[in-house]
Amino acid sequence: MSEGTATCTTCPRHCVIAPGTLGACHARTNQGGMVVPAGYDHVTSLAVDPIEKKPIARWKSGSTVLSLGSYGCNLRCPWCQNHGISQVGEGDVPWRSISPQELVGLARRLNSEDSRMVGVAYTYNEPLVRWEYVRDCGELVHEAGLANVLVSAGCVMPEVVREVAPLIDAANIDLKAFRSESYRMLGGDLATVQETIRLLAAMPTCHLEVTTLVVPGVNDTHAEIGDLAAWLASVDSQIVLHISRFFPNWRMRDRGPTPVSRVYELADVARQHLCHVYTGNC
Ligand code: SF4
What we know:
The strands form 4 sheets. An 8-stranded mixed beta sheet has the order 6-7-9-10-11-12-13-14. A two-stranded antiparallel sheet has the order 1-2. It is of the alpha/beta class. It is 29% helix and 23% strand. The model has no long low-confidence stretch (mean pLDDT 97). The protein is built from 8 helices and 14 strands. It has a single domain (40-280), classed as Aldolase class I (TIM Barrel, Alpha-Beta Barrel), CATH 3.20.20.70. Iron/sulfur cluster is lined by residues 8, 10-11, 13-15, 23-25, 27-28, 74, 129.
């Protein structure tokens, strides 16, 4: 390693970062030999969303959550619907700083105006590339008597999951495929995501749902979705699975949307293993 570099241990990429430069996610930097979040409290998107939009189907139905995102991601899914924030850095997108204290103040106010607004969702881009912000906000959100919702691809090291898991009341983790080679194409690692799912499923305080976007030619076989659902069921057959329809986006425009009939078929395959399977985008 060259002098002054530091290795980031947040995700399996383990970027070696030179001082003042960024890791592959555009969200972590080397400050004095320490890897820290770049743009710790930078927020690009802020909205009150229905919980069903996360998607979370079986936890506090009818509620809303103050949802926020930043920029950056450690994965490179060519179909990303949020590539305008996930695949860019600080200089490429408008942002504003929102400290954990400000965020919780806003959440408290929204909750006092409408009690259906139950908490804060960390979402839109990958929140765990700045897990320290999720942790710091999450602690204050709980002190305020509100809930934390995590929407993540889950491709971070177990130490990171253990830091935030006790603060998370509901999570939706993207399980993008069930083949290691597919994850390698995205810059991720299947085994790491599986461990995240196992850790969250083992938390009695965390309601867990999983989403799989069915992409034609990538993960749309009965065999793959069957394997995926059987594995989830081996963790806990009560885990909710969303089988979701792909639409062409960003760098994947060479194929059409997933046929609706295929989504329904694959949901039936998953139902052979899991108690709660939903279809999305159909
Ligand atoms: S979180 Fe970012 S900087 Fe750290 S290893 Fe992953 S891609 Fe690299």
